[in-house]
Each structure stands twice: as structure tokens, then as C-alpha cells.
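From the pipeline queue, job 12 of 40. The input is one protein chain; the requested action is below.

Action: predict structure.
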Amino acid sequence: MPLRPVNRIAPMSRHDMVAGDGPDRPVRTCVGCRSRTVQSDLVRLVAEGTVITPDTRGRRPGRGAYLHHDRRCLELAERRRVWPRAFRKRNGGGTTGWDVSLVASLLGDAPRE
């Protein structure tokens, strides 16, 4: 019986694509407001220990979570305590919690319209 090649990258389903003016584009869910939108409209976040850092280029290793470039979505994510689920770390924040200061400084004080 011949061995089949292993495809390590799963193809995107039609559910994960959105039609626009051009070719279909990837869709992600904001961890704050839970709305689905085009990946380019979101900021990718990566956990490095208990520090959550924005990955503006989308090249850092590790599991990523996506967030709108809006202070309100960050506040919703904090209120809902999404970080352990988003990064699949059972005790990632421990008793000290998650450090989101880098994300907060990127977003600034005012919501982006």
C-alpha cells in the first residue's frame, strides 16, 4: 500500500473565507467582540510567557489571537478573561494575570473608527 503525503497545513474551508472585490480573503474572529471579519482588519496577538505582544507583521511563532484595533474590544477581552482560552494555556497568567500593556499602548486611548 503506497504512503500518502502528509499535508501539514489544512486548507481553508469556504466558511473561513470571505468574498470581496478580489479573491477570497481569510476571516478571523476578534477575541473581544467575537465578530468575524477579514484578517487584515485585525491585529494578531501572541503570548510570550504572560506578556501579550502585538504581532503586526504576523510572523511570530506560536498560537495567535486576533483583536480589532479598538480599545473597547481589548476591554471586552479583559472582562471576559479570554487569554487562557485564546492561547490554550491553562495557568498562563497565574495569580499575577496577563500583561497587556504592549497591546494597550498600540491601541492608544481612543477607539479607532
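Job complete. Helices lie at 71-80, 83-86, 101-107.
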